[in-house]
UniProtKB/TrEMBL annotation:
UniProt cross-references to Gene3D superfamilies, sorted A to Z: 1.20.1260.10
Top-rank taxon, per record: Bacteria
Pfam families named among the record's database cross-references: DUF892
Organism name: Sphingomonas endophytica
Designated name of the protein: Uncharacterized protein
Amino acid sequence: MPTDQDSLRELFITGLRNAHAVEKQALSIMTPQIARIEHYPEVAERLREHVDETNGQIERLDELLAAFDTSGSALKDAALSMTGGMAAMTHSLAGDEIIKNSFANFAFEHFEIASYKSLLVLAEDGGFGQAMTPLRQTLDEEVAMARWIDEALPTVTRRYATLYAEGGSGHAKA
């Protein structure tokens, strides 16, 4: 375990900034998906709920960063938001957009889960106890979303296959 408090503090702040940028990226991925979903109302509803959760996560990260007299990285936020928007746009061109989005969302949630688990280790080792509760809350939200996507994937896949077989494209929006 590293013992240099300054190094741990620096790593932790960098991790918080990275998480902030990742949450901004999540918004740029989910928001266009919601606008395009028609045949999958339960997916749209859960994404809307997670957008609200994500906004709360960003607020918690802002508060944690402010406690260290710093803020998110505008450059990281912008760069990851742009890549998230590009990914969402690329999937919108695919006939199986809902499937590709489901795969990407599942992977992205697990990336976030790993990020928050790592931040919790740094918070514990660095003695940043004030960060533990908000980070655990966010981790719990990400785990719940990943679980929901996992449980919904068979239904989404079957609905897509049914729409496709009926002569529809199965697109998120027909």
